[in-house]
Amino acid sequence: MSLRKSKSSRAENSLSVEEQQQKLFQICEVRKLIAPLSHSFPDFCSDSSIARFLRARNWNPEKASKMLKETLKWRLQYRPEMICWEDVAHEAETGKIYRADYPDKYGRTVLVMRPGFQNTNSTKGQIRYLVYCMENAIWNLAADQEQMVWLIDFQGWTMASVSVKVTRETAHVLQDYYPERLALGILYNPPKIFESFWKVVKPFLERKTYKKVHFVYSDNPESQKIMSELFDIEKLEPTFGGRNNPHGFDFQRFASLMKEDDEKKKIALLSSGDSNHSQNHLLASALQQSETSIMPEDHSEDSSVSSSSSDVASPKMSRFDDKLQEDGVKRNKTDTKNEAGDEVEKKESV
User: Fold this and answer.
1) Which residues are in the CRAL-TRIO domain (predicted)?
2) Residue 310 and residue 287: Cα distance in Å, rounded?
3) CA pair distance 283, 56, nearest whole angstrom
């Protein structure tokens, strides 16, 4: 798989004129299905945005429409764009997730994740910080990019770092509300025990998702080629085999960068005439108008705008929990409280 573009992106670029017209037709179909939303929120209903939702749902307009509608419902309730640094700063103190100050060679934003540096116990707080970092990474994407790269550092990681509840919540948010945002995931120096864990997880992921994941080891020259192809080694951190920033994560510096971005986003929102009350009212009104266009028979989902994502889990995740138990993975009791009632439709790719 090319590190530059995903397989789906390359395939779309090589489509015939007829196939390209068909893709455009499917985009138009989605736009018709969500007509009130497409007029009210052009940024979220642009051709490129709709195409991401279509790719995540195998170019099925009805499924993509439903997914986009649910994403906008979630944004109405969760307001991810309004999360600011002060809300999540305590979650960031150890550098468990942060945006790197360098892109990859193709201009994509890089998110560094260090699961072994977990410093809080609140699932809600951890997911809120993840959402904040995702929003910031998207904000910093180059104009010609819509995907990012994840660099996952396994320093300090043990099986005790695994929380099934957080894993499930993370998958739910990333797959359902940020579809096709992941270009590549680099797992750097995962311990042997993680390889066993990965074998358990892999069958429950969509093929297009796990194909984006690469294992890289510092003592394996062949796998190190991935890093040199993807990054400028002079800008990459020593943790990942680079020569930049030998002192590692600097919380104060990162805080300054995030505050600067927050201020820029605030100015952009104000200049666009957005406000919490007017935006919420407009979105709620548009969603109500689109109810009859998407899943008219499913009234229970349509009334769940304010429901928590902790109430959502796929059959895949339920089977994932069972498999973890079979393999003797220990989990916290609080991770299993809601498992019995968690049954909704299958999640698809990130």
Assistant:
1) 85-248
2) 22
3) 23
